[in-house]
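Hi Q.,

Before the meeting this afternoon, I wanted you to have the 5'-O-[(L-methionyl)-sulphamoyl]adenosine prediction in hand. No need to reply - just skim if you have a minute. The sequence and ligand are here:
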Amino acid sequence: MTKRIYLTTPIYYANAAPHIGNAYTSLIGDVVARAKRMLGYEVKFATGTDENGQKMVQTATAQGKDVKLFLDEIAAEHKRTRDVLRVSYTDFIRTTEQRHHKFVQEMLQKTFDAGDIYQGEYEWLYCVGCEAFKKPVDLIEREGKMVCPDHHTVPQTLKEKNRFFKLTSFQDRLQNFYNEHTDFCIPQFRFNEILSFVEQGLEDFSISREGSTFGVPLPFDNKAVTYIWFDALYNYLTVCQGGDEVFWNEGEVIHLIGKDIGRFHAIFRPAMLMSSGWKLPDQIVINGYFTVDGQKMSKTLGNIIMPLELIAEHGRDALVYYLFNDNKIWNDGDFSWERFISTKEQTLKKWWGNLVVRATTLCRKYDVTTISMEGDAKESHQALLALATAQWIQENGLRKLFVNWWTPDYLENYLKTFDLVSYLRDRFQLVQLGNKRVDQTKPREIAKTNVDQAKRDLQALVRLIKGTAVLSAPFLLDGFARFKELVNVQHPVWEGFSTDQTTHQTDELFNLANFEVTYREGYLY
Ligand code: MSP
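Predicted structure with the ligand bound:
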């Protein structure tokens, strides 16, 4: 049976080019998409831009630009960033597209027909920065004024006729759903925040804006447009229409988002989908935010990191390795330039780069081209595993089973936890170990008296570097492409392998027992 997964990133506001924070969520999705393709999954991976809001109109106007042209420019910038970062998305949606407007209108009509929309007149506080309604209790005092805690601006006061979504009538259904789907949101502490928010009692929310003309017109009242979040949250379904329905209906559906937009995705949206008659997604994975050198990224501080500039100077692998090595995805983290540079130089270049150079140089010298598990060769492999095991226990205790380190199941299980950080650290503990093993076994010296022994030890080393390269392929794209040039495994699956496409012979890719290989001289990084 075909295994399918549908992954999404949030759609990013099209008021500015994407910074490193936006790139982070996209890169999490990319690593998972690539790993899943390696495991034989058909992957649909959607991203895009959120365009129907006042924030966009205001920014374009402030820059004296036509809104449509402005949005085209920013959307192109987002696409370019994702292309340069090689985020392997399969769909890019802009919410100003006709297909999206049409679909959202159908959904609005369904919700209206289901009796879940009603009309009222209210006075509102609205923060354009957040594109969200606020209550007086949400605000903080600054210089005698009540302002939004995130944007430090006084919200607009709006008195208008509004359409409301009857969120209150979904209270029980949502709670039942959460009880039955205890891993609907990960990490658990974020899910707990959602649960306690819902337990305090939900309120209906406004889904229309009267004065605004920029957005999706309500099909049952063309004087108003729908509230930006009501349209944006449907983007994930818009891209499944017209051929890719199977991903929603039969695939595993996982949304990746930042911690700021958990309530929209875990409360509002499930209720909206219940009302319009859709199955709910399987999981929402919530990542933390990070600061730069301990400070919030801001224009005033001039510390906003733009991914394109960073990778032009340091390369994509350095960025990805650092992001996934430094901090668990759901914790708030900090981008430290010092740690970034040292990880790049130390771990990638010294440990990993050196190990590959050492292994390929020695294997060329002693002509280690057949890797096999026959006879004595198995002993060398087991010796390396024993060393790994000893080191593992010393550093981690007996908490995990390590014998499965190099199997597809190991990768699959890790992906379920989204603990990409431990996964990557484990890989690179093995790299350190490989270096240690060369120091200990001293192949050049042993070869003087027992060349067969040296060759067997080197075979174990080739297994280790092949295993590490395969398992880090979803992260280190440049390093992996280069690795394939240096370590040329003689098998069609290996030759044609790329994490851009679904692999159909996963087991062969992970085969570390018996294979033929040749080497080229050169550096990995
Ligand atoms: N347009 C809405 C989302 C709609 S989804 C239906 C939005 N857009 S945004 O441009 O503000 O981007 C939000 C996402 O970018 C966050 O949810 C998060 O995933 C990511 N990040 C933005 N800043 C970030 C950091 N400083 N750190 C980590 N992630 C950050 O909200």
